[in-house]
Write the structure tokens for this entry.
Amino acid sequence: MVARVRHLFGRLTDVGEARSALGRALLYERFRALQRQIPLLYTVALVNFLGLAFASGLANFTLLHPANLLVLFVVVRMGHWLRNRGRQLAPEEIQSELRRTLFLAALISFGFGFYAITQFNLSSAYQQGLVILFASLASVGCAYALASFPVGARMPVWLLAIPFAGRLLLSPNSGHIAVGISLVLTALLVLRLVKIHDEGFVELVRSRSAVESERERAQHAEQAALTEKARVREVADTDPLTGLANRRAFIAELEERLGRNGGRPFALALLDLDDFKPINDIFGHAAGDAVLIEVAARLRRQGGAGPLTARIGGDEFALILPCGDESAAERTGMRICEMLGRPYHVEGRDFRISSCAGLVVLTPGGGDVRTALSRADAALYTGKEKGRGSAAVFTAEIEQANGRRIEIERRLSDPSIREAISLSYQPIFDLSTGALRSFEALARWTDPDLGLISPVEFIPIAEQINVIEGISDGLLARSAREAARWPDAVRLSFNLSAVQLCTAGSAPRLLAIIAAEGLAPERLQIEVTETSMLADFATARVNLEALRVAGARILLDDFGAGFASISYLREMIFDAIKIDGSLIAGVPQSPIGVRLLKGVLDLCASLRVPCVAEHIETQEQIDMLRQFGCRDGQGFALSAPLDAEEAGALGAAKVVPFAARNRGRRKHDSAA
């Protein structure tokens, strides 16, 4: 029995669930509604209570009268709610306030009902009518005022309207009985309306809560999307190895700084590491990566975080520095190069590398990114020409040289340039018999405005702007057309650029070009340098093997000028090795040069690969090369480069004295 009473009381005093989101929303909404309605509730109760007291003619304003004490209590509670109107409370505080409100609603309803019945019993017929009126209005008005709090709204009905209606039903007056029935029906209707109102109230709060939850989910989703977008952007703008900004992010930052209106000048620095590739080749990429990470850490301390310091290539870095003039920029560049030149302790080893820096001082609003990078790049080339660990700042002199480079780029981009580049043919002879073995095709370009432009100057530019393939293909077609007129025993020797060599599908295209000109693959020999194979050795190997299978001969050019030549001799098969001219120039005057040359020739002999010596300038060099077993040679001591007509005539003669072709030629024509 006790348990049932407690359960019933619990249900009656249940004012909401504060643990769920919907329960908390209902609590907040009920409390906000009560904050607006309860002052009105107390006003209705007070007016009807006073009306009831005056109507009965028994008003007594002494504080000792129980009715007046009830009036005073109502006034105090109304003041309490007015003071706390709009106040925000925690869910637990709201629950306590609602329980207190429920208890007081029951207390006031019971007191009002008891007082109304008492006055009804003591009043005249006229006064009884007024008591019925005020009691009925108080019960209905108070119930509606508490409609957002249904358990409280039932208190005026059950403790005021229903008891008072019961008293009317017990009256001998038929009119009072009719009013009692009407009041009961009205009370039931009010209870029904309170229930309907509460259902609508709960549904409204539920819908609003669902909308709010959906909005919160949308906001969370949007925030998550923004966070993910920021993360993706950070990943997209960050070099994964070093954690520095990548080229994309750095260019964007540089563009933003150059686009500002006003601001202090700053310096753009480009850095390139020297001697880094041997670390990867000898000690592995893990060691190389560790060195790059340490380089990045040193640069970050110098240039700052974010997009101000970036890795823009394999061993290339860029910085934005707060340098306002050229002298400050040069000092900073030298300091960075000195810092990067200190030993790197990685995996128990000490590595030493150096770097060169090119800097340009820029002013916000005073240029574009392409020009800035071009000038810094030109300064970097100047720094490299000074030697390892050097820095250079872009100046008017460099600008002049850079202007020449830009003009060369512009002219190389014009398809008609292919006709402006001519060909010379330098013979390669058998040093023992004097027989003509081949002609090396040499590109020549003399511009009316720029003058003589060496292949050493324009070929790297053509490679960088991606026009070398068209130029080289055109030169191969023209030289193959000339070679087709030579005797079958004379080959065409043609230099392949790094771009052609390391581009998939180059071999079939080259074979198709010479076939269209009537030159057999067996009469073509391709000259490649070790450095030209560095970009993509696997693709270079495929192209060279395809050419060799077709019948072309493959020559390794500039042997002895690089650090990896012997490894290439082990990796690939060459039909001949062309010894770099630097090994020839030191003999016979230098004993060390003589021993070095003999050692290289002995190495080739042990590999059973014939040698071709280039840049032979004297008879003494010819005699020594013969003595050491070098088979073929070329150079001014044998013949200067010839034009197509002269090459055709020499080819027809097949064998000529070495000095016969030398008259009237200038040595600078031999630049390859």
